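Priority: low. Protein: Seipin. Input follows.
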Amino acid sequence: MSLLIYMNPFRLFREYVRTPIEVFVAKQYLGYKKKTDEGINSARALLYKVGVISIFLSAILWISVFMYVVFYYTYMPNVTHVRPVHLQFKSCDENMGVCSFLSAHVQLTRRSHMLMPAQPYRVKVILEMPESQINKDLGMFMVCAQMRAKGGVLVSSSCRSAMLRHRSRLHQVMRTFAFSPFLLSGVNEEKQLLQVELFSDFEDDQSLPVTDAYVEVQSRHAQVYSCELHIQAHFAGLRYFMFNWPKLSALIGISTNLFFVTLIFILSWYHLQDGLPDFVKV
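Result:
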């Protein structure tokens, strides 16, 4: 009887086939589950680290860009200031014509200052004058300007000579014939633009910043269409490099800021790492 029980195929199948398979499958499942849990935990920790590092890198990059932009707009002045000049004169009481020099007051700014101290500027007066016979016969005339601070305090003054460019009779006839369609249609005009540079290296005084300019054309017979005052910054050194090569200077500036900001972040990271969570530590 015991032999029959011992040789029972169901018992043999249960003890030597099903049970070993169940044990093997259970061990494989538990091992796989353990590895999966460990992988999930390590992936989660890796994800946290990648997230923290990405946030730090983004913050460092944007801080570097912001620092360069702030430095650029603080260090670099406006390149050109253009102000219209409305020339005025005194009419003659008895005869027709102009009985005074052409002059104008130009308000550069309503604030305390417009120009950057210690920055050289070129100050020009642009005269748009017709090629009339009166202007041709006028010859040379003087153009003067005074740079004044608030309250009318004189800071600097300058006078320069100017005249229309000479054109011979043959040149004038040929030019008129060549440009006749444009002259008749009004696209082109018989006029010249005179650029009179009054200051070639003007620097604003920080104690007396310039706020107004006075322009005078010292001729009663000059005929002028319009007039403008141009103040152009004359860059040198670092400003010259930043103005003429803005992309290269931005790349160098942002890279330099990135290096120093990264160094500060790394030193701060290792200094404060003991107080950080374990999954954040490198």
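The chain has two domains: 17-73+245-275, 81-236. The chain has seven helices and eight strands.
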